[in-house]
TrEMBL record:
InterPro entries: AAA+_ATPase, ABC1_TM_dom, ABC1_TM_sf, ABC_transporter-like_ATP-bd, ABC_transporter-like_CS, P-loop_NTPase, Type_1_exporter. Residues 382-616 form the ABC transporter domain. It comes from Streptomyces roseolilacinus. Keywords: ATP-binding, Cell membrane, Membrane, Nucleotide-binding, Transmembrane, Transmembrane helix, Transport. Pfam families: ABC_membrane, ABC_tran. GO terms for molecular function: ABC-type oligopeptide transporter activity; ATP binding; ATP hydrolysis activity. This is ABC transporter. CDD domains: ABC_6TM_Rv0194_D2_like. It is a multi-pass membrane protein. Residues 1-34 are annotated as: Disordered. Residues 58-343 form the ABC transmembrane type-1 domain. It is found in: Cell membrane. Belongs to the ABC transporter superfamily. Lipid exporter (TC 3.A.1.106) family. The keyword Iron does not apply.
Length: 623
């Protein structure tokens, strides 16, 4: 056992209870960011998924009921054949035997046809439900605010929409049929046995008591086991996705062995949790078979004495034994249903917890529109009015912040790490809402704008220009999906990206592959600028847009910035002071406050912090 695995094992035993299922707070230590579902949310989710499909559900239930009726008629025909048809046959009457044979054949045919109809109807319901559920998860995850995605990993979202949905598929496609079969079998067989003979029926019903206690115990223990298993596989997926997404730094820093050890520890944790679930299933199967065999043996022994005494017909005893076997044969399958049910219940609870999350940046109840901007208007006015802001996990980032940016002005924001520069940009882009105060765009509070209206007014270009899988043209068109090909190419030419795009194998139709890995960082940034230019926002935010580029790439992007910033209000978050040269105004931030504010030339000529930063930057260029 490696040191990391040992540490992980110690963590498990210290944070979990005596049974290894949960920590002191009742939660698995591998799922500390779990989203508990509100009371009743799981049932409400399942009902909402099935409600639009009531007719098909009812049809499936009817077909299954008819199938069970055809199946359960078999032992009655056997009893009739033994007690009536065979004696009639001895007297030369072939009618009852023929009737039994024909009836048995029709029941078998009917059972097969009804089963086929049920499978087809239920399969359509299952696929519709799963399609609906995956769509809900995807749409809801996109609608949740940025702060949710910063604390809830993408690997867990993948687990919710894959392994958890798959657990529900197993329940709907196989488990529910087994449950209905068992319930109908218990009800119909009990009534038939009571009708055939009160004593035989009473013995059968009495045997249900230990079985009920066994099922109850299994459900209680299996629920915790399957919840822990669902959490453990989610942790495995998270680690796998994290490693594959960061494969470059993994290889660069030789993290393969340590990642392998960490993944192995999570994998072994999942193995243990999966083993717990399998062990509970094994205990249930052994117990149920013991109850079943004991009940059938008791029925045969007691029934044989009654047949010998003449108080019970042989055919009734034969039918009773057949019914008892039919009653207890599905018990193992009931265990499979409970297995699927507990797994699906744990998964559905996690999905319900996810879908219960509400955006912290909600859409306004009544949205407003931004004032119409003339074609040649110089951007939009931005005002931060008494803004305070604190992240959930830390202290106050902006203690009180007031700022006015006139329309058409380019403002560069500089400062040390943690000064609040990126927070300012995120508030302006409305990735977050202020704890207090307002952010105004042309006098309109951002909270009163719908998401689509806000994105038409404000666009953000980040340090890592994210490109989607698809063509270059499709990535530029993200800025305005209804743009024509000519408009896309015009935006690329204006930015200075046309030449490198035209040199690609398929030009604008070249697939950039995962995250734009087919082109360089500078080229990805140019595509992002073309996207922003095509969107034509009144306010553009550049969050350290050149910090990760080499000198040639930075120069190309700076030339593009001159074009994309023209006629717009711009907020440029800058680490490299070369970016500041294009600004009309510089803000120096420290601890969430503006400590210097003015044109770059005046601040450079002074003796303040920006002047010192600028001198150090110039000296680094000379060196």
């Amino acid at each position: 056992m490696t040191a990391q695995d040992q540490a992980l094992r110690e963590r498990e035993t210290s944070e979990e209870g005596p049974d290894g299922a949960a920590g002191p707070d009742g939660r698995d230590p591998f799922d500390r960011d779990a989203l508990p579902a509100p009371k009743g949310a799981t049932g409400a989710l399942l009902r909402s998924l099935l409600a639009p499909r009531r007719a098909r559900v009812a049809l499936a239930a009817l077909l299954l009921l008819l199938q069970q009726a055809a199946v359960q008629a078999g032992p009655l025909l056997v009893a009739y054949a033994i007690d009536r048809a065979v004696p009639a046959l001895r007297q030369g009457d072939h009618g009852p035997v023929v009737a039994v044979a024909v009836g048995y054949g029709l029941c078998a045919l009917g059972a097969g046809l009804f089963q086929y109809g049920f499978v087809e109807a239920s399969a359509r319901v299952n696929q519709d439900v799963l399609l609906d559920l995956r769509g809900r998860i995807f749409r809801h995850a996109q609608a949740l605010s940025v702060d949710f995605h910063e604390r809830y990993t993408s690997g867990r979202l993948i687990s919710r929409s894959t392994t958890d949905v798959e657990s529900l598929r197993e329940l709907l496609s196989e488990g529910l049929q087994e449950l209905v079969n068992v319930v109908l079998s218990f009800a119909s067989i009990s009534l038939i046995l009571l009708w055939l003979d009160w004593g035989v029926g009473a013995v059968a019903v009495a045997s249900f008591v230990p079985l009920y206690l066994l099922v109850r115990r299994y459900r209680r223990r299996a629920s915790a086991a399957f919840s822990a298993r669902s959490t453990a596989i989610a942790a495995v997926i998270v680690k796998f996705a994290e490693t594959m997404n960061g494969i470059r730094p993994v290889r660069a820093f030789r993290r393969e062995r340590s990642n392998d050890e960490a993944f192995g520890a999570l994998n072994r944790h999942h193995e243990r949790r999966n083993g717990d679930a399998i062990l509970e299933m094994a205990r249930y199967v052994v117990g149920s078979r013991l109850v079943a065999n004991t009940a059938v043996a008791g029925m045969v022994l007691w029934g044989a004495y009654r047949v010998a005494e003449g108080t019970l017909a042989l055919g009734v005893l034969a039918a009773a034994v057949l019914y008892m076997r039919r009653l207890y044969d599905p018990i193992d399958r009931l265990g499979m249903f409970l297995n699927a049910y507990e797994s699906a219940a744990a998964s559905l609870e996690k999905i319900a917890g996810l879908l219960a999350q509400r955006p912290t940046v909600p859409e306004p109840a009544v949205s407003r529109e931004l004032p119409r901007r003339p074609a040649r208007a110089p951007g939009r006015e931005v005002v931060f009015e008494g803004v305070r802001f604190a992240y959930r996990t830390g202290g106050e980032v902006l203690p009180r912040f007031d700022l006015a940016i006139p329309a058409g002005q380019t403002v560069a924001v500089v400062g040390s790490t943690g000064a609040g520069k990126s927070t300012l940009a995120k508030l302006l882009a409305r990735f977050y809402d202020p704890s207090e105060g307002r952010v105004l765009l042309d006098g309109v509070d951002l909270r009163d704008l719908s998401a689509s209206e806000l994105r038409r007014g404000v666009v953000m270009v980040t340090q890592e220009a994210f490109l989607f899988s698809g063509t270059v043209a499709e990535n530029i068109a993200v800025g305005r999906p209804d743009a024509t090909r000519e408009e896309i190419e015009h935006a690329a030419k204006a930015i200075g990206a046309h030449d490198f795009i035209a040199a690609l194998p398929d030009g604008y139709d070249t697939d950039v592959r995962k995250r734009g890995g087919r082109i360089s960082a500078g080229q990805r940034q140019l595509v992002a600028f073309a996207r922003a230019l095509l969107a034509d926002p009144g306010v553009l935010i550049l969050d350290e847009a050149t910090s990760s580029l080499d000198v040639p790439g930075e120069r190309a992007v700076q030339r593009a910035m001159d074009t994309v910033l023209h006629g717009r209000t711009a907020v440029v978050i800058a680490h490299r002071l070369s970016t500041v040269e294009i600004a009309d105004r510089v803000l120096v931030m420290e601890r969430g406050r503006i400590v210097e504010d003015g044109p770059p030339e005046r601040l450079i000529a002074g003796e303040g912090r920006f002047a010192g930063l600028h001198r150090a930057w110039r000296e680094s260029l000379v060196g």
